[in-house]
Sequence to fold (121 residues):
Amino acid sequence: MSEQAVKQVVENYIEGTYTADTELLKSVFHPAAIMTGYMGPDLMVANPAPFIEDVGSHPAMKESGAPYKAEITNLKVTGNIAEATVYETGFFGDGTLEDHFHVLKDADGDWKIISKCFTTL
Fold:
């Protein structure tokens, strides 16, 4: 059950990214979440808000016909914590990324992304 719940959170992240559904994206992150990583040579360290705003400021990849694909390549649940890896291609047309998520069960029993570490490839 936990593995399916974590998978659903990550799939909601993927769907929200593809459809520019900023409310769905906000719902998958813990309020104290952090995002760190590299967009090309640039290091980014922030909460998810700038990412969510950026996704929402562009036409949805689904609507623009971007060749976006995302695949969960790793998923491991240990008690109330989990890790997941997602490989994305066609991000806003030609971006390729690898995302490493840490997910935890919050005080309400809901699984939320607490951190995302990413890099462009």
Notes: The chain has four helices and six strands.
